[in-house]
């Protein structure tokens, strides 16, 4: 059970998807968790989208950002506000493309954290929309800074056994203790979007805290299929993986080149086979920008200089050749 004195603030980030945000707000309002309030951070949406929010929500429940500074920037506005304005003990950061199937999800996760003082953040399982198929349950970060994901809970439990102090959690529906934020700080805003949750999890592990998946509850994550993901998704994931490895993990250049080669073979080849040439160019651009250390919001997702693509193809060819040799 949760003490009634424990204050929980849910924070929804909105950017030009006010209808989805309002639907999620209604689901959050039905949660049974006591002492629960909800804030919406609008990340400088278009005027008509802001007006939709204001027509549904009181103004004191909306934090308006003057710029679209990305996921971390918007969430940090909400987190800073609730920590400053009230005695919030937990924050629940949420994407607005979620569906919460039960009214006890938040209460279950917070109760679990209350019962386990050594655990500082947790997430419910993430499921595919209206399905029993798990889309994400957790993962771990190895000694080289490589991120490994588990797509079923049994696999994640094995990862917990082998890498208990290297767990990372998806930031889609993450419940975080106040004391953790006060100890390690807010989300890193240099990524703009994607990989900030992996970065945060890595810092959690370095600080000696523990992260867990609460498997008896779940939410549906309505993210697009791989073939429908926009150009910027491919760019930021390619770039931010390298930024994370370079800046946070201080990985060797040899390890970073392995990561580049892996993305070229696993991600780029698939895009080219399906004829998604603009998205393939965005991957090339992301790799290039990650290698040169470009951070923040990107304005250009087009192909980098031709020499970069040529070097990328050479690296991909070399990596494939090395794998054939090892298998031989």
TrEMBL record:
Q: Which InterPro entries match?
A: Glyco_trans_2-like, Nucleotide-diphossugar_trans
Question: Per UniProt, which keywords does this protein have?
Answer: Glycosyltransferase, Transferase
Instruction: Tell me the first and last residues of the signal peptide.
Output: none
Q: What are the GO MF terms of this UniProt record?
A: glycosyltransferase activity
Q: Which domain of life is it from?
A: Bacteria
Q: Where is the Glycosyltransferase 2-like domain?
A: 11-182
Q: What's the short name of a Pfam family annotated to this entry?
A: Glycos_transf_2
Which Gene3D superfamilies does the record match to this protein? Spore Coat Polysaccharide Biosynthesis Protein SpsA, Chain A
Q: What family is this protein classified in?
A: Belongs to the glycosyltransferase 2 family.
Q: What is this protein called?
A: Glycosyltransferase 2-like domain-containing protein
Task: Tell me the organism.
Answer: Acidihalobacter ferrooxydans
